[in-house]
Amino acid sequence: MKTYVSIRSTLFVTVTLCNMSEPSSSSASTLSKVVHWWQSHLPSAPSSSSQSATAAMIQPRPSPLGGNGLFLTTTSLALALATAQPIATIPNDLLITAAKIHHHAQQHDRPLARALDHLTPPDCQLAPSRLAILTFLLRFRALPDQSQPNPWRPYLLALPTLADLHVPTQYEDQELALLHGTAMPRLVAAKRAKLVDELESILSAFDQVPTSPTSESAPSVNVDMRQAVSLADLLWADAIFWSRVLETPAPTSSTSGPQSKSAAATFELAMIPILDFANHSFDNPTLRWDRDPATGDVHLSLTSSSPSTTLTASDELFLCYDPEKSNEQLLFTHGFVIPGNTRGYISVDAMPELNMLAAQAPELSHRIQWAVNHLQVRPMVQVSANPSCKSGPAQSAAAATITWLESLLDPTSLALVLLVAVDDAGAAHAIQVASESTATDQQDLVHKTLAVLKAKVGASQDAVERACEFLHVVFSRVAQEVDEIKVGTVVSAEQDMVVVDIEGVGEDGDKAVVQHEMARARLDAIVGYKEQVREVVLGVVKATMVGGQ
């Protein structure tokens, strides 16, 4: 039972196990249908027998990590290692791209085709890939049965359901409350606002589609998309997009066609069935993929670092999604974190401090707004997740401290901090130089602005101390807020669901309790992410102490 209480400041969380596991969205029958669908599209001619044999080398099935994974079959390992041949091929016909969606819609779903036409910019031949894929997924949600032809139906039916997805945009309010003190609630709010706009764009495109069939219409079923789909459906489609779409080289002989009228596309975004069952590993990726430039087929192979001594038949195969992906990115796009992953950055919300400083100094408000407009600065500080970056002495010489700040912060965050620290004349000079520069792109503009700011701040010990003081104030507040919540330990690893009792302060100032049922995977991700945020934040607080603060 859920009790909903308004909580102003969450303080404690205790965890109680509850036997409420749910079946996977992909049953054995559904997975079997996907495999049959895939194999039915493989070449069957004798000359292609080696390609056909690879279909038996891998198999999607439930993973011990949760959800599904890709596994070697009992007969595949020796053959794959002996011949160095691909262990599987995904025919180009099975990939989902913007061009194929357009082609399918023209042949079988005229309302979808018309909507995509309305979403296509004037100078392009196709709607933007992301928008096309989201629109296609929403159309499938509206017509999931056999009433509308869809060659990818077996694959689409095997995709995770909303309940299986654990990305923060899917979190309930109580679950986001557990991330109090981190930047994640603000990131989620911004993402949801963007999705609201995208949904309206898509639905407006369908609004312009005639409701009655015309002589030119392909056989299709019309439906009121505003009634058939909601924001929850787009939240699902967005999570599917970010967790499954890959950027791939566009085949030279494909039907994808150019994205614009001026130049042919060299890359395209694609959903790649079967491959997207593979789970992630930084340390032991055993699977790699490449796309044939002529045919567009995708070939899956064992990595050179997966010898027979480490792989056995029936082992799960892993991809490395991105060798530099931070836990914050993994949580935001995939819904999990990896213990010990110190790659990338952690975001910290600096809006309260920026608002306070702007109220005291209107000129600062103007320069921050300039940075937002021209440098794409956000009211956040992105700090390295690598603990070694927190050991820099904040009280060293100004130039050395600037070098340390460069190792600690991402470029746009460094620009934000230095704009706060530099005096008005120095800031005005940096903005003037940047505005008059001949930067080739936004990244070059950031680089040129930073060069001026580093010279100005690095020449003043007072300015350097102001930069460190700003960081110290921001991270001290965050350290306090992160510790306003404590999560009890989940002892059993056998259950999919847990119940959390959230104790905090209600709107009336009294203690309030919220009992909330949630997926164990979500709780594990929240706990892991907050532990890393706490460690990083406390490291910055210590390193930025100036004058014995």
What does this structure look like?
This is SET domain-containing protein. InterPro entries: SET_dom_sf, SETD3_SETD6_MTase. GO terms for molecular function: protein-lysine N-methyltransferase activity. It comes from Catenaria anguillulae PL171. The protein is an alpha+beta fold and 549 residues long. The protein is 44% helix and 15% strand. The protein folds into three domains: 1-23 and 337-549, no CATH class; 41-95 and 273-321, Beta-clip-like (Beta Complex); 100-271, no CATH class. It contains 20 helices and 15 strands. A hairpin with a 4-residue loop joins strand 14 (497-506) and strand 15. It starts with 6 loop residues before the first strand and ends in a 6-residue tail after the last helix. The relative contact order is 0.14.
Spans where pLDDT lies below 50 across 5 or more residues? 1-13, 15-25, 45-53, 255-264
Overall pLDDT = 83
Count of spatially separate domains: 3
Strand order of the largest sheet: 2-3-11-8
Count of beta strands: 15
In short:
With 549 residues, this protein is α+β, with helices and mostly antiparallel strands.
List keywords for this structure.
Beta-clip-like; alpha+beta; 4-stranded mixed beta sheet; 44% helix; 549 residues
Give a topology summary.
Elements: E1 7-17, H1 28-40, H2 49-53, E2 58-62, E3 68-72, H3 76-83, E4 88-90, E5 96-97, H4 98-108, H5 110-119, H6 129-142, H7 153-157, H8 173-177, H9 184-207, H10 225-228, H11 231-244, E6 245-249, E7 267-271, E8 279-280, E9 287-291, E10 298-302, E11 316-319, H12 327-334, E12 345-349, H13 351-360, H14 362-374, E13 380-384, H15 398-408, H16 411-421, H17 424-436, H18 442-458, H19 461-482, E14 497-506, E15 511-519, H20 520-543
Parallel strand pairs: 8-11
Antiparallel strand pairs: 1-14, 2-3, 3-11, 4-10, 5-7, 6-7, 9-10, 12-13, 14-15
Helix pairs in contact: 4-5, 4-6, 5-9, 6-11, 9-11, 13-14, 14-16, 14-17, 16-18, 16-19, 17-18, 19-20
